[in-house]
Amino acid sequence: MALEGVRFVPYRETLDLLSVEEAMQVCEDVYRMHAAGSVQWSQPSSWKLDVEAPYHNHWHVKGVMLKDIPVTGVRMYNYYDDGVRNTVGRLESARYILLTDPLTGHAKSIVEEHWTYAIRSTAAAILPLKWLGPKNPKVLGLVGIGTMGVNCLACLRTLYDFEKIVCTSRRPETRQAFAEKWTKELGIPVEPVDSIEEVVRSADIGIGGTTATDIIAREHWVKPGATYISLSRREMDPAGWAAFDKVVIDDWECNMAGKEFQAMLAAGQFSREQLHGEICDVVTERVAGRENEDERILIHTIGMVSQDVAICHYVYEKAKERHRGIVLPPTDG
Question: If we measure between CA atoms, which residue out of 123, 24, 30, 16 comes closest to residue 71?
Answer without folding.
Answer: 30
